[in-house]
Amino acid sequence: MILAVDSSGSTGVALVDDGGAVVAARRSGDPRGHAEAIGPLLDAVLTDRIADVAAVAYGVGPGPFTGLRVGMAAARTVAMVLGVPELPVLSHDAIALAALEGGTEPPFVVVADAKRREVYATVYRSVDVAGVPVRDEEPRVGALDAVPDLPHITAVVDPAVLGRVAALRRAAGIAPEPPDARYLRSPDVTLAAPKRVTG
Question: Which of 23, 45, 54, 147 qualifies as a FRET site for 190, CA 20 to 30 Å off?
Answer without folding.
Answer: 147
